Structure of Cell cycle checkpoint protein RAD1:
Amino acid sequence: MVNHENVLHAKVDNVKNISLVLKAINFKSHGVCFASDCGLKVVVEDSKCVQASAFIGNEIFQEYVLFDEDDNAIFRIDLNTLVECLTIFDGFTTTPGSTTALKMSYQGYGHPLKIILEEEGIITDCSLKTMSDCEVLDFEMVNSEVVCKVILRAPDFKDVFVDLDSSSNYVEFFLSPEDPYFKITTEGLAGKFEVVIPKNSKIVEFFDCSNSITARYRYSQIKPCLKSLSIAAKVSIRINEAGLICLQFMIETEFKQYCYVEYYVS
């Protein structure tokens, strides 16, 4: 039964649909949760130049009720603790194929996030402290300023990405409307390493580039993307005129529904 004192009430039959997506952005200890009628969005930032957000649509939940879309539905939380709670039953199940159900509720400003997990009759009740510091940067990318957009098959692109030299200080993306179209470069202890992806490659599903652009990012800032890339079906890469890059990962659940992770690096 839904408690109408709650600002937010949500229930999902398989908590892994939530925990996998949150693990993908758990490279910092805290995140800001935004609840809306459309679903839950959790945002993580690093050094004011990296932002990752996970969006879990309301269709992922078997129950999703939001009574207040104002500031009461926004809170900061310890993401490390949240992920630990959601994965508390991982590896301990005795029945193959069994899943852990999740109930989640929040009563608004100053109240904790309450979590109830149930698997095979075993119930765990958690109460997580929330915080009111909810400011995040606006990294929205205007379509008119996008120079290049590429959509790739994520499992194949991951194979390319893991081959990059992890000793490199940077990752350089070169995109062009002409050959070589898409080139990724690193330079580390083993020397200079380049990967060229033609626009007609089997891993490319969409390629649009109006002008040639070269953009370089710290490897340490791009590396956390591998968590999302490992569980995604597709990845979209957009770069604007200022060199801001947005990687959007489409993650499929067992019921052919989708969650999304967006990753911005300036």
Summary: The longest strand covers residues 39-46. The chain has a mean pLDDT of 90. The first helix runs from residue 16 to 24. Helices lie at 16-24, 79-86, 154-162, 219-222, 225-229.
